[in-house]
Amino acid sequence: MVRILLKGNVKAHITDWFKSFQSLKNIGTEGQTSAVPKKLIPNSAEILLPRIQKDSQSKKTGSVIPPLSALKPAINANLPDITRSFKDLENGLLDVFNNNRKWANSVRLQDKKFFENLANNEQQPKLFWIGCSDSRVPAEIIAKLGFGEIFVHRNIANQFKEDDVNCMSELEFAVHNLKVEHIIVCGHTKCGGIQNAYKEYVLRKNLKFWLSDIRKIKDSHPELFPDQITESKMNKSEIDAIHKKLVSVNVINQVNKISENEVVKEAWKDEKRKLSVHGWVFNMENGHLEDLYVTRNK
Ligand SMILES: [Zn+2]
Asked: How many domains does the chain have?
């Protein structure tokens, strides 16, 4: 297993790792905002309610509440209309509510007890996902999993920091309460956090601090991650390839930090406990999840 740490012999580790990752390629771009509704929806539930009542009379479901994993409609219900954009909504946020009611009603038409079951079952996800906050990388949709399947933490550039109480409390809850079996750190190509680690001079103080670990990795390997002047002479695909390398190294760095964390190490003391930490990258150009094969089991 190749370990990449911020301190010590980082350079040798990263160089070794890259020898086995020369095939990593690149890709994509970003963007946008809104207005507040002046009135609430008439009551979209009234529009669709008759159909639901008719449906509920025609189908009789059992009284046994199924596990969350059996809520099949959730899979389709989670998939977005990819042609829909907020800027195309005539009534702005009002249409967000209208669309939400239509969606909820369409789910109930498929399974009238869907939301009842959702509310009456405790979550039992097997996956804890640490991904980027980027609006283009929603965990459940990328993984094509439904409600109750993934416990999610997202932040800029999918980072794990032990002094981040938010992420640490989620890790504790995921590992010790939910007893997840997989912790997945998922980076992505075209990551703005990675790209901005190159441009700290344009960043405000909090973002600059947040991205400082990534910048340290980049600065300690000028042979892999050229400075801005050198990069400005490169073509787009060369720059994308370099950014993707940094995306991957950043993911591996988080996998190692999580694996060395006391919360995870404590769980690994129980030999019967199934718990793995994985490093993945979502390739935005083709929609594929790529495994970096850096899984740690102890
Ligand atoms: Zn990102």
From this structure: 2
Residue 107 has pLDDT above 80, yes or no: yes
115's tokens: 């939301």
Cα of 111 from ligand 1 centre, angstroms: 35
Q: What is the pLDDT of residues 76-90, one digit of tens each?
A: 555 555 667 889 888
Q: Which of 121, 151, 185 is the last residue of a domain?
A: 121
Mean pLDDT of 89-118: 93
Handedness of CA 98, 138, 163, 212 (dihedral sign): negative
In a domain, 31, yes or no: no
Q: Among 121, 137, 163, give the residue marking a domain's end.
A: 121
Which tens digits make up the pLDDT trace of 12-43?
444 444 443 433 333 233 333 333 333 333 33
User: Is residue 34 domain-resident?
Assistant: no
Domain span at residue 193? 1-26+123-298
- Is 265 inside any structural domain? yes
Q: Give the Å distance between the CA of 3 and the centre of ligand 1.
A: 23
Average pLDDT over residues 109-132: 96
Distance, CA 68 to ligand 1 centroid (Å)? 29
35 lies in some domain: no
Cβ contacts of residue 282 below 8 Å, gap of 6+? Answer: 131, 137, 142, 186, 187, 188, 189, 288, 289, 290
What are the residues whose beta carbons fall under 8 Å from the beta carbon of 213, sequence distance 6 or more? 6, 159, 161, 253
**Cα 106 to ligand 1 centre (Å):** 32
Mean predicted confidence (pLDDT) in 168-192:
98
Q: Annotated catalytic residue: which of 3, 108, 111, 134?
A: 134
pTM over 0.70: yes
In the chain, the amino acid numbered 285 is E
Tell me, yes or no, if 188 is annotated catalytic.
yes
Instruction: Give pLDDT, residue 124.
Output: 96
